[in-house]
Fold:
Amino acid sequence: MKYSPLAVKEAVRVLAAGGVIAHPTESVWGLACDPHNLQAVEKLLRLKNRPLEKGLILVSGDEADFGELLQNLSGSQLQQMHSTWPGPVTWLVPHFERVPPWISGAHHSVALRCTDHPFTAALTRAFGGAIVSTSANPAGCQPARQKYQVLRYFGDELDFVGGGATGGRSAPSEIRDLISGRILRPGG
Structure:
């Protein structure tokens, strides 16, 4: 799957400036921002009409970006994660107060995904760390699978829209709880 290095560069510039972008993921389009920028997170939540309490997913193309969030996990827990990463599985892991409340919401866990989508992985590497990434749709609407749907939902309210096509998977990423083993959202 091809992507433009210029698109990666522009998306990184926008993220670093506190913007919200739309980008392709393994299955649907996502909205992304810098997880350390509260104003950017608030803008993203406002666009989605999503309450802060629900929490957000952190995505990276490099598992090392989740370093301190993984340091208290057992070898078997890490092995479980490694069996699905990189790929379309999001894991809920205890955060031990290592992420800001605007990322974890009302939860004692944080959602992490090591992506295998070429654009999104390149984006996080160029950005220098994990980004917030949540489906590109207002609450209650179907996630956008095509760029035109993103534009229909958000128009010119986004600071960048691009990165090529999605990975073509049929459903948003699967969400699994690492501690309980429960699948909270089946994948495609």
About this structure: The radius of gyration is 15 Å. The mean pLDDT is 94. The longest strand covers residues 89-94.
